[in-house]
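User: Run a structure prediction on this.
Assistant: Running it now.
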Amino acid sequence: MISKPLLKQSIKANGVSWLLVTVATALMLGIIVIVLGSLQANEIRNSLKDTFVESELEAHFKGGAIDGFVEAFETVEEIYPEAKGMYDLTTATINTYEYYKLLGTPEPKEAAIQTLVEGASLEQKDQVGLIANQVLTAYEMETIQTEKLHEFKSSIVIEFILSGTDGEMSKEAKQAVISISKEILDLYVKNENLTDEDFQIIARLYIEKIFYQNLLSSETEETKEMLSALEFDTMEDLLNNYGFTEIKVTALISSGIIQYVSFINNEITSEEAKSEVTDSLLTQMPEDVAESLTELGDLNINHLVIGSIFYTIAGLLLPIVYTITTANNLIARQIDSGSMAYVLSTPTKRRKVTITQMVFLIGSLILMFLIIGAVGIITTA
């Protein structure tokens, strides 16, 4: 089938180039594997993945905080007129009572209530009388220092607001009304009137106060899906894993809300403002790039570099050059030098010459890649 003398001649003529290519390619692979091992490439991959996950979580937290801020702002707008009116009436009731008491009026409570009712509009007389009576009943039962007077009036006002709500309130809703009402009254007593900017401050402070704890106790479907996708049992585990402490989360959502408010105050729509604030690294990239980076999280970097880069580009370059030059040496160069004419002048058949040269070329390549593969396995281990 083959000519042994011709095979030996081919090995002798091309052995050096085969050895050089094999050693160079194997050395290249060994260096790549060793370098990847020292760089801990999979840790780099995981770090990159964590960066994108953290960016998405930050966007998620900001989005949730903005939604809560919008609801809180609407609640502040709804509560403020009632809280302001009730606080003013409570203040007027106590001041009138103290005035009649200072004058030595025998029944200062009744006198104060009568004065307030007479000064009210016809449709409000009954309500004013009822409120004034409740305020003074509570006021007479306690000895209130001047510095505690605002706290007392605030508690009275909040009780009136809660009693005036329609239907039964949940514990969370009740706590929200109490907290927001107190913030409104504390700011109102200082400024005497509140603007939209004040409403925004109150809503932001409220969300900053409750967001982290609500995040830990959240049981929405969206939260469950996120925990499942990231392979965490609880939100607390997820936050701890990515370093989201209460301080960090609060600072994050605070900056998000402030940025959102600055947008809407400059006549940008709420949807556009929220979209700008909640942009993450992936959403800022073209869709195909974002998808590629998402898939990167499932890749083994060692396999990517060795399989997709080395064995498709660098690792094949020298063997391809070897194949071309050796094929040329086996046929064309022997024809040019006259060696082929000498070989064909012997009893050796042309078919045997062709098969011999083919066996040498293919066999040398197989042996080359076996050696390179063995080097890769050894260095990886």
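The two ends are 41 Å apart (CA to CA).
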